[in-house]
Design brief:
Strand order of the largest sheet: 1-2
Shape: rod-shaped
CATH topology of the domain at 2-77: Tumor Necrosis Factor Receptor, subunit A, domain 2
Radius of gyration: 68 Å
CATH architecture of the domain at 2-77: Ribbon
Largest sheet: 2 strands, antiparallel
CATH class of the domain at 2-77: Mainly Beta
Order of helices and strands: HEEEEEEEEEEEEEEEEHHHHH
Helix content: 25-40%
Oligomer: single chain
Distance between the termini: 230 Å
Number of strands: 16
Amino acid sequence: MKEQKMHFQSVFVFLVLSVVGAQLCDETLEYEKDNECCKKCDPGTRMNQGSSCKDPVCEPCKEGEYQDAYTKDSQCKRQPICDSNLNLQQPTQSKKELSECECVPDHHCADTECVSCVKNTVCKPGEKISKSATRNTDTVCEPCANGTFSNHESALTCTPLTICNSEFKEVASGSLISDRTCEKVKGNGTAIALGVIVPLVLLLVLAVVGYFFYRKGKIETLSFVEELQGCPTWCIKNTHQAVQIDTEVEQPVQHINQPQEDTEDLLKLDIPLTPGVSENGMPVIQDHSKSSLLSQTETGPEEFSDDL
C-alpha cells in the first residue's frame, strides 16, 4: 500500500514537470524535444535533418517554394502553378509567403478560388465605367447622361456636348456616341462691315465731288473776270457768245435831217470808258453801233444835197 502511494506521487510530479516544461517554450520560435525548448528556422528557410536542438542548420527554400513561418520542417511549401491557358500569370515569387496566381491584364477571377480568369466587360461608346474591375469582380458600365457623349470604348467619363454660340450654327446634332457639330456663320461680319463702310464712303465721295465743283466754278469765274479785265477790244468781241452778256444799248434812230451838232455832241461825252471794263470794274462788251451810226450821220447830209 505504501509503495503504491509513492508510485502515484512520482507520476504526478513527472506530469507536473512535463506541463511546466512545455509551457516554458515559445511556440512561435521554439519547439519541445526531449523536454527541451529547441530553436526553429526562420521564414523562407527549412531545417536540415540532423540539426542540433540549440543550433539548427537552416537552408533557403528552393525556387518555386516558400516558408511563411518559423519552422522545424525539413521541406518548404510549393508555390502554386499558374496556367497561362487559363489566363493566369505568376507574380514575382517570394520565399517567405504564398504568391497566388494573378489574372492577366483586363481579366478577373472566374470564381472565389481563382483557378481561372475571364475577360473584363468592355464599356461601349455611349457608356462610361461606373465601377472598375478588381481581382474578383467584373467592370460595371452605365449609359452617358443626356447632353453628354463618349465616342470610344472603356471611357472613364462622358463629355458634355458642344454648345454652338451666336456666331455658329448647328450642322449636326450630337448623340450618345458623337459630339454636336457647329459651323461658323458666313457673311454676318461682311454684311455689317459693308452696311457701315459703304454709306461713309458714299458721303465722302459726294463731299469731295461737291467741293471739287464748288472750287472749279469759283476759279472759272475769277479767271474769266481777270481775263476780261486784261483783254483788248477784239478779244472781248470773241468772247461775246460764251459770256452771254447783253451789251446792246438801244439807240434812238437818227433822221437824215437831224443837225450835225447833235451827232457831234455824242462824240464829246466826258465819261472815260476802258474797253472791256465798266466804271464799277465789271466786264462789258464794247458796243460799236454808236461809231457806225455817227459815221452815217456825218456823211448823210452831203449825199442828200448832191442828189438835190
